[in-house]
């Protein structure tokens, strides 16, 4: 059984990369196809991850050798059809793509006629359809069913993290849309890429969504059904009394006991809205630790320093930390503050709950599937300073002895028990078992394939 894994690109280590890592554990011999790998940027990943990924059989596209395109892959995203169209995986039995905004599910999986050049074939997504779209119809696949080509190549299973956010009006990692030249450029490019995105979606045999929210988006934008398998979360058994690492012990607010600080974890980009957590914690003089890096790091550090000159610094930027250190930070936190806009699932809140830590989260997107208001945390309704401040105040009230007694039991124990129970729904073992069963189910129904493991 020949299996291939596909991923958008490797540039930083986040939730999507955790999914790919868990997939590779199931099929360690499977090559990973990706558009490019930016090892200098990926070096910021937690300790040990770079060496782990370098030990894999990673196969990149022609983009990997072009530093300019690699650096500006986002504004040059109109090249995505050419990138994925140049990668032929039709000789595999099963292809599993881990697809996000760069649409790696556009790889060619359908066998074409002998002697016909790849750029003129119509089996699978046409890599030139976008560029010909200026003069003719960009997409012809609308007239054909995705079922028609299943027998002409490998089974293509797409684990979709989200339809491209930039194509459908969802917040992205930057706020550049406020500039009219960017809006004008995006309007033109995204129009044609939406056609390509639809076409690639119709070539997928089976969709797996990372949340019910993502499944609804797949249905809305692609008219396709999908099976929900929540992404893998390390359950973690870290306790606050475990000896701390040197980096954490030297921080301003040492982890000496549970409930000493609030925590923010994730990429420091616009869509994560870490600025809200910073402004509220500055206003309320609350200790906040921030884990992660990103393009808005400089801006957020300046924002954090405002108004702190006359008092001890209450906000810390810890940068990237190892999985072990992150587990200890989760376990020692009073609560995680999570302000991401329209998150498709939100792995960070579930990671926090896996360590018994409640979450104060913006009630948007897939987060509402994991954070149960009043049970595993508190949901606030609007991405504003006032709404988050109100959410923190409500969280504090729920933790007071009188309220906790009325809700049955000690507040800390209640939070921890509920959070761990909820997080078990997204354990890594459960994810791997469900994914393997899904793939094997198809293999068992196809006389030409055997079980994949």
TrEMBL record:
Domain Glycosyl transferase family: start-end pairs: 250-399
Pfam families hit by this protein: Glycos_transf_1
Database matches in SUPFAM superfamilies: UDP-Glycosyltransferase/glycogen phosphorylase (SSF53756)
Molecular function terms from GO: glycosyltransferase activity
Protein name in UniProt: Glycosyl transferase family 1 domain-containing protein
């Amino acid at each position: 059984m020949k299996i291939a894994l596909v991923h958008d690109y490797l540039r930083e280590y986040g939730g999507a990369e955790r999914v790919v890592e868990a997939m590779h554990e199931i099929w360690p011999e499977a090559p990973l196809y990706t558009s490019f790998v930016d090892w200098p940027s990926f070096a910021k990943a937690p300790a040990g991850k770079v060496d782990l990924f370098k030990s894999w059989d990673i196969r990149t596209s022609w983009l990997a050798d072009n530093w300019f395109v690699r650096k500006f892959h986002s504004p040059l995203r109109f090249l995505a059809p050419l990138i994925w169209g140049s990668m032929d995986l039709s000789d595999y039995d099963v292809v599993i793509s881990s697809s996000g905004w760069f649409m790696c599910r556009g790889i060619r999986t359908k066998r074409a006629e002998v002697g016909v050049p790849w750029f003129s074939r119509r089996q699978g997504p046409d890599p030139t359809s976008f560029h010909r779209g200026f003069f003719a119809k960009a997409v012809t696949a609308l007239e054909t069913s995705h079922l028609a080509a299943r027998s002409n190549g490998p089974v293509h299973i797409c684990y979709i993290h989200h339809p491209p956010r930039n194509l459908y009006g969802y917040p992205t990692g930057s706020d550049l849309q406020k500039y009219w030249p960017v809006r004008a450029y995006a309007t033109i490019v995204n129009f044609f890429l939406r056609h390509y995105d639809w076409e690639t979606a119709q070539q997928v045999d089976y969709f797996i969504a990372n949340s019910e929210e993502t499944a609804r988006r797949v249905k809305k934008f692609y008219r396709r059904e999908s099976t929900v398998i929540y992404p893998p979360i390390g359950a973690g058994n870290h306790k606050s009394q475990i000896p701390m690492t040197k980096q954490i012990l030297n921080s301003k607010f040492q982890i000496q006991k549970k409930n000493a600080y609030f925590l923010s974890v994730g990429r420091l980009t616009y869509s994560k809205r870490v600025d809200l957590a910073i402004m509220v914690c500055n206003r309320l003089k609350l200790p906040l630790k921030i884990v992660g890096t990103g393009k808005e790091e400089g801006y957020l550090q300046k924002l954090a320093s405002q108004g702190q000159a006359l008092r001890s610094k209450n906000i810390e930027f810890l940068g990237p930390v190892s999985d072990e250190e992150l587990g200890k930070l989760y376990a020692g936190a009073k609560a995680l503050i999570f302000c991401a806009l329209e998150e498709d699932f939100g792995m960070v809140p579930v990671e926090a709950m896996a360590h018994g830590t409640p979450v104060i989260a913006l009630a948007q997107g897939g987060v509402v599937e994991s954070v149960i208001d009043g049970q595993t945390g508190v949901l606030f309704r609007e991405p504003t300073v006032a709404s988050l401040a109100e959410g923190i105040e409500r969280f504090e009230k729920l933790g007071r002895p009188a309220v906790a007694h009325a809700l049955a039991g000690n507040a800390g124990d209640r939070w921890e028990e509920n959070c761990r129970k909820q997080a078990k729904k997204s354990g890594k073992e459960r994810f791997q078992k469900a994914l393997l069963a899904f793939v094997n189910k198809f293999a068992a129904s196809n006389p030409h394939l055997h079980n994949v493991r």
